[in-house]
Specification:
This protein has 551 residues and is of the alpha/beta class. It has helices spanning 22-32, 50-53, 74-79, 89-102, 192-204, 228-236, 238-245, 272-285, 301-318, 322-328, 346-349, 396-399, 411-414, 448-468, 478-493, 526-538, and strands at 6-7, 10-18, 38-41, 109-110, 115-121, 126-131, 136-144, 166-169, 184-188, 207-212, 218-220, 254-255, 258-259, 341-343, 355-359, 365-368, 372-375, 378-381, 384-387, 402-404, 433-435, 471-476, 544-548. The protein has two domains: 6-47 and 105-150 and 394-544, FAD/NAD(P)-binding domain (3-Layer(bba) Sandwich); 154-390, FAD/NAD(P)-binding domain, CATH 3.50.50.60. The strands form six sheets. Strands 1, 2, 3, 4, 5, 6, 7, 20 and 21 form a nine-stranded mixed β-sheet that branches. It has a five-stranded parallel β-sheet with strand order 8-19-9-10-15, with helices on one face. A three-stranded antiparallel β-sheet has the order 16-17-18, with no helix packed on it. α1 (22-32) runs parallel beside α14 (448-468) and α14 packs parallel to α16. Bound molecules: NADP nicotinamide-adenine-dinucleotide phosphate.
């Protein structure tokens, strides 16, 4: 192991972790156990990742808080207590700060440090990480914990700099908050972020216009304060719950607050009455639990049609105005094939007189002007514009850095036609570079924390393998990477997820103009992914190659 320390202006470490979100904190804790010198470099001014940046009104988790915590340390999950069934952003950030304090993580973190490039040196088999201040840090192992939904999608609307009023972005909300009282507000986008923000912005604004292109399926969160007795009982079941999480497609198990394994039967084998009762039960239970309902909802269009129709009917029942009812009814893709949204009072907000939709399918935004937004040849004037336009998901944060592997080859070029990885973790030609929750893993298709924890376990296993063999590095064999990438594509084609391409699904990269439209995530589910990794490790790291010292 190398010693940490400054030498000739550069710092030599065993490992560098980029990103201080959920994955980065977990990775730091686990790498430290290897007795290695390690540092986390983070662009933000503090830790938290997603939960540091996304502070818009209404921002909260869509996974039950009792499930939304680290499992790697039983003391942590037993001690922390959540105030609501679905924690809001400030509480999740407080949790992360509490974890960092308990584990003394801050001493190995550097903030306000954006990474410009990471270049692999074939002679020394080390990575040189260059920061925005020009500092170069060298390390053997480079762990990308940069997040799947962290790099914003570049706003592809003409004239965004022209607006003289206030402009906000949900992905980097002002820390001091925003007072919309009495203001005329436009929000561009109607995805998960907008759906959470709209009800709260509408409470303050004098006028709120939602510039919407595609209607989404949103189900009620059914949020409520945490019942202390329930929480105490739940904590007794953690070892069982954590095992169950790894045996499910989505990495979460609660239905109405109760851990339950996913159904394994088909929606098509149920009677109409049974199906209706099942969907109604899930609606009342709240949140994303449709993902653990009938086994064929995301693979069989006839099964899916029953669910999509059910949610459409529920949405329509909530909206008074026939025009808004039609606009908000999702028709362009099957439910679940874009991440299901979950809300508190979203559709009801459209029954308020001062809230309206501008249908961008009929009148696209022509440009942003000094006074507002030009649509249909007329400027609609606003005091504030909020962009909730989404992310360059999964690959965006990685491609924003100049990552170069063997032979100076850029990762971005290697992935020009879509990402290629082995197990969603590594790419051939980029030794010792680990992408936690990278493309080809289940990443944010699933509950992020179990997925991050599991991937960090794999990173640690790989590092231990290198160290035990007294080797220099590990990387995938090209054939293994090709097979996995093909498998990721084949599995996607067996599901209904590709049908959301025309609804600009970020799962496919279809929301970013010019981005290769390929499945970014492994749609086989977390359970299948965990099984595959276990097999690979049991088969002596099948598909990976080690580079020996002196080679
Ligand atoms: P998103 O789901 O990608 O939604 C972006 C919205 O902006 C869409 O309505 C999109 O319309 C619209 N848009 C993009 N470019 C546009 C343009 N040029 N003109 C007009 N409209 C435009 O992004 P998000 O809402 O930030 O959510 C992304 C993901 O983050 C979610 O799927 C979820 O995984 C996660 N998230 C989770 C939560 C939670 O509940 N915990 C909250 C927020 C986010 P089109 O659909 O027509 O392209």
């Amino acid at each position: 192991m190398q010693e940490a320390g400054a030498a000739n202006g550069s710092c030599n470490l065993d490992a560098v972790i980029i990103g201080a979100g959920m994955a980065g904190l977990c990775a730091l804790h686990q790498v430290r156990k290897l007795n290695m010198s390690v540092k986390v470099l983070e662009g933000g001014s503090d830790l938290g990742g997603t939960w540091f940046w996304n502070r818009y009104p209404g921002c909260r988790c869509d996974i039950d808080s009792v499930e939304y915590s680290y499992s790697f340390d039983n003391e942590l999950q037993q001690e922390w207590s959540w105030s609501e069934r679905y924690a809001a952003q400030p509480e999740i950030l407080a949790y992360m700060n509490w974890v960092a304090k308990k584990l003394n993580l801050r001493s190995d973190m550097e903030f306000n440090t954006w990474i410009k490039s990471t270049h692999f040196d074939e002679g020394s088999e080390t990575w040189a990480v260059t920061t925005d201040t020009g500092e170069v840090i060298t390390c053997r192992y480079l762990i990308m914990a940069t997040g799947c939904l962290s790099a914003p999608k570049k706003i592809d609307i003409k004239g965004t700099d022209n607006f003289a009023g206030e402009t906000y972005y949900t992905y980097k909300w002002p820390h001091e908050g925003v007072d919309f009282t009495g203001k005329r507000v436009a929000i561009v986008g109607a995805g998960s972020s907008a759906i959470q923000a709209i009800p709260l912005i509408a409470k303050e604004a004098s006028e709120l216009k939602v510039f919407m292109r595609t209607a989404n399926y949103s189900v009620p969160l059914q949020n409520c304060p945490t019942d202390k007795e329930y929480e105490a009982d739940y904590k007794k079941r953690y070892s069982e719950v954590r095992k169950m999480q790894r045996q499910t497609f989505g990495g979460f198990v609660n239905v109405g607050g109760v851990p339950r394994m996913p159904r394994t039967d088909s929606a098509l084998d149920a009677t109409p009455e049974e199906r209706e009762a099942e969907f109604e039960y899930r609606w009342e239970s709240g949140g994303l639990c449709y993902y653990t309902s009938y086994a064929d909802l995301a693979v069989n269009i006839n099964a899916n049609n029953h669910l999509s129709d059910f949610i459409r009917k529920k949405i329509r029942n909530k909206i008074d105005d026939p025009r808004l009812r039609d606009l908000l009814t999702p028709t362009e893709f099957p439910a679940l094939t874009k991440r299901l949204c979950a809300d508190t009072g979203y559709y009801e907000t459209y029954n308020l007189d001062h809230v309206d939709i501008v249908n961008l399918k009929e009148t696209p935004i022509e440009e942003i002007t000094e006074m507002g937004i030009l649509v249909g040849g007329e400027v609609m004037e606003f005091d504030c514009i909020v962009f909730a336009t989404g992310f360059d998901a999964v690959t965006g944060a990685l491609n924003n850095m100049d990552i170069r592997g063997r032979g100076g080859v850029a990762l971005k070029d290697t992935w020009a036609d879509g990402p290629s990885t082995y197990l969603g973790l590594m790419t051939t030609g980029f030794p010792n570079l680990f992408n936690v929750a990278g493309p080809g893993s289940t990443a944010s298709l699933t509950h992020a924390i179990p997925c991050d924890e599991h991937q960090v376990e794999l990173v640690i296993a790989c590092i231990e393998r290198v160290e035990a063999a007294n080797a220099k590095s590990i990387e995938p064999i090209q054939a293994a990477e090709d097979l996995w990438t093909q498998h990721v594509n084949d599995v996607a084609n067996m599901t209904l997820f590709p049908r959301a391409e025309r609804a600009n699904s970020w799962y496919l990269g279809a929301n970013v103009p010019g981005k290769a439209c390929k499945p970014l995530l492994y749609l086989g589910g977390f359970d299948q992914y965990v099984k595959k990794i276990d097999e690979v490790i049991d088969n002596d790291f099948e598909g990976f190659a080690l580079s020996q010292m002196g080679n």
